[in-house]
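step 4 of 6: structure.
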Amino acid sequence: MKKIIIFVIMLIFSAPRLYAAVGCDLNDPDRDVKRLFPGSTGFKTIYVSIDRKGGQPMLQRIEKRLGDSFHGLYETIDVPYTLYEIYRGKEKIGYIHGVNQKGQYGGIQVFLSLDLKGVIRSLYFQKLTNREAALLRSPAFGIQFTGLTLGSFNGYDVKTGTATQGPVAAIRNPAAGAEQDFRATLRAVKKNLILMDEFVFGSR
Amino acid sequence: MIRIWQIAYKNLLRKKVRSILTITGIAMSAWVLVSLLGFNKGYENALNRDIDSMGYQVLVAAKGCPYEAATLMLKGGTGLRYMDESIARDIQRYSEVKVITPMVMQAVFDPNKGESGGISAYLGVDPKTFPGMKGYFQFQQGKWFTDPNAAEAVMGYEAAELEQREVGDKILIPEKNVELAVVGVLKRTGTQDDGTIFVPFRTVQRVFGVAGKLTAIGVQVDKNARIADVEQKMYDLPDVQVVSLAQVKQTIISLVATARVMVFSIAVIAVLIAMVGVVNTILMSVFERFQEIGILKSMGALPGDVFRLIWIETFILCLLGGIAGNALALGLVRVTDILIRRLLPYSPTGSLVMIDLPLASIAMAAIIGVGLLSGLYPAWKAARIRPIESIRSQEA
């Protein structure tokens, strides 16, 4: 009888809240996963949050690694991050993970597809509003991120938008009029990689 | 001295699994019944709240299908038609009209929204009259724009949340290449206004090239005037359609009515199935205690006492089932809300299921009432058992 009561209570309190913090999901996962991971046959969706995974200490650690504090509605401790585990048959072949980032004219959604070691395979803007958005969305810009890892961003300061050395210093902004969104993209990518490291790879 | 209630309770405990299963069956049907009654009440309340929150009683829109006007108001739809701004001045002259507010809605395709693009909508409003009609609006940050020509915007809570905008930030109108400064972010209202970007209506007219055109006029009628009289006058205006919000409400309610009838039929069937379960359980219990009841009667129990005993057992089952069903309905109200929203073509904002004490009491009374009716036959059957027959059956 006790078990039944516990089950009912869990069912009641696990009902979704209407006003939860906003996460970052793929608009059309079936289509997007196939495009970002050609050859994949399926995916599993996992929801994680800093709150559940490590709480305040994890948030502080992430902010320290990012070199900037979290702020705004999309960077609260309870934001549910959507992690897509990608499969070919029964074999796991990688991950897709997206984050929200404040941009010049609106929210930017930056997704990364990663291999099992955390190396970037591709970058995808799901949402980006800018006069020169097409240049940032172009394959020529996105390919500059291919092969980068979290370690590549070690020398990158998200506050000043400067990289002293390393591959990130070599990333060129193709849109002179979208400098703010270019920097926002780099911050989003670094944040994305740190979150993946905390949630999945754990190389810290 | 042991009471009849205690005997009835202990009888039910003798077959725990059977009693629990019967209670579960009753609870499930009570849950369905309470949730549906709650939906009946909640849907109408939510609809009333949505319509009242519009701040005007009549909407005048350019001529077309009336449902377009309803969609325009309730869902911020596209496929817009225009009317001349002079109509607003004509309506303002009516003595029954307290205040009017002109509106221009525009929707543009934003190629940067997602992979295939999406629609961004802007509602042009008059800074002099619109804020007065939306007196319940509260600002999270900033305030209303005051210049009808300003390149400024006030964002609803969800619109600002989605775009990560704060006061001082910019938004870009796609296609038009026009920047607007965010001067205010509203607090959450629980209505469709949460997802709206409000812009001064002259700015919208200028940016989208629709100078002198409006998509709608909100009309607030004087307290002492009859809305129907004003509507009648407005019907004479050329190329406009007049939509009273009462009319919109009725249309939506009638659209949902068919679904409600079907859902209520399911609830009635669920209750009937549960009650057949009750009859079955009690009847089985009576047959199993055939000799026992005979002995009770031979010891002096009257048919009325036996009838009461069996009926009390039915009552206890229905009471416990009813309480559990009400608790389930209350606890899972959010889940029910989400499920109903997925089924309905249009659902107002706010909670669609409203369960309160009077409603829970009515459902409880219905469950117990129907339950007691179901217990009549088993109780009557038990009361008619003859002691001599029951003792003979034992010997056999």
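step 5 of 6: annotate
 - Helices of chain A lie at 2-13, 29-36, 50-53, 55-66, 133-137, 139-142, 179-201.
 - The radius of gyration of chain A is 18 Å.
step 6 of 6: archive
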